[in-house]
Request: fold
Amino acid sequence: MLPILARARPDILALQPYSSARMEARHASIMLNANEAPWAPVGNPDSALNRYPDPQPPALRARLAEIYGVASAQLLIGRGSDEAIDLLVRAFCREGCDAIAITPPTYGMYTVAAHTQGATVIEIPLLEGFHPDADALLARIDDCVKLIFICTPNNPTGTLVPLATLERLAVAVRERALVVVDEAYFEFARDAESATTLLAAHANIVVLRTLSKAFALAGARVGSLIAHAQIVALLRRVQAPYPLPIPCIDAALAALTETAVTTMRARIDIVLDERERLARTMMKSAQVLTVYPSVTNFLCARFVDAEKIYGQLLARGIVVRDVSHYMKLAGCLRITIGTPAENDAVLAALDDLSTVSPQPSL
Ligand code: PMP
Reply:
């Protein structure tokens, strides 16, 4: 057994996993092993929706593995990377004694998953420039910490964590904790190297990828966890038997053809150009104090009065994310890069707000 697996919950390691009908037998001319309806559903007569989906559809698994440059056995597909975060916490953290470590400000679901499971959250704030404090982090790792979540590029700051930092963490906690590298925004970080390149040398690294961002499939809920095959096998024990709906599998396959990937790349070019245009123009606004550098499809910016800007953008039909309550992000809003026309609307709104003279008090 992989040494890091000994850190999983003993009851999960001992669990007799559920064996679904589709796992036991996938194809036959007469399928009578899953208590399914023998007819296609009303409303979708030409579909196979009366059948349970394949738990890990081989064609999708193979294509994702090819795109991510890993072996199929290293890949667990689930309902977005959110499901992967939840599975990791459930498989590794015992209620009341185990912990995760995070580097705020960062993605909020790590904490929610941990608290749902009754695990403790240890926070090691990012340093100036939103870089992780590896020394402080390692100083806080004790026997309770099972998972270290590092989001790179980080949401909501847009910053990339160097591969060398990830490797240093992985080496330091080798058989004690998993370093979970959340790469939800990886495709936007043009020259970055994925942490998947560290997997061969470090069995305690787990990488999360998603089709929700660059591949424009947030509504289909398809995410991947990439790790040593034994970690994937462990997590399958706690995953629901049929996590991926058939229409979502089909949508994912359609979004991953060669042509679709070419389109995705061309769209990223637009997003990156637009991000630079938005950042450049926003920096000239009297409303904006700082636009933080970003390698993602969003910008995090500090405003003179974030609450007022949020409200006034909303009044113009533009909703952005208020992240001003996050650690170190007082006065900040996170703005997703939209279409050029949508970004124009944001800039026009900021321009209007800068030129509006204060109302005289009566
Ligand atoms: N990780 C990060 C950093 C995210 O920002 C998000 C979604 N906002 C997720 C994971 C979850 O993505 P998914 O749609 O794949 O569940």
Observations:
- Residues 323 and 333 are 5 Å apart (CA to CA).
